[in-house]
Amino acid sequence: MDRQDVDRPTIDRQNIVPPEMQALVERAGYLPGVRVGHLLFCAGQVGRDADLAVIADPEAQFEACWHNLARVLAAAGCGFEDVIDMTSYHIDMARHLPLFRQVKDRVFPRGTCAWTCLGVSELAVPGLLVEIKVTALIPEAARAGL
Is the confidence at residue 2, as pLDDT, over 60? Predict the structure, then answer.
């Protein structure tokens, strides 16, 4: 059966691309976020600078990762307080998790979402230490503007 022949429900869906991430979309071919109904699904965000270069310093990389995630959330009218589920993927987790938690505790509200933390052998680009993927519930006030 052809996919076009399948009777599927209409999905209320919108691509979320902060202007400063347009080059990433063109280069990598994926979306930073997708809104479906009242939910925002954010692709994993990493600690790269505006030129898409990996930031070498672990603390600065973790800060940039959270900053990039905040950009995607903001483009859909969300903030960290709207995140309901988070998964973080870590290289050399035993070594870097304490510093990652320190940075997380400075920028992300504690005890507000489900969090799964996984150690992995590698990420998409050498030098990356963490990738954070989240799902957020879009606030009612922001839904009207999307």
Answer: no
According to the model, what pLDDT value does residue 9 have?
A: 72
What lies within 8 Å, CB to CB, of 103 at 6+ separation is 59, 62, 63, 66
- In this structure, what are the phi and psi dihedrals at residue 131, rounded to the nearest 5 degrees? -135, 135
Q: What is the pTM of this model?
A: 0.90
Tell me, what amino acid is at 119? G
Report the 10 Å Cβ neighbour count for 140: 9
Question: How far does Cα 91 stand from its chain's mean position?
Answer: 17
For the beta sheet containing 13-16, the strands, ordered from the edge strand earlier in sequence to the opposite edge, are: 13-16, 33-36, 39-45, 130-137, 83-91, 114-120
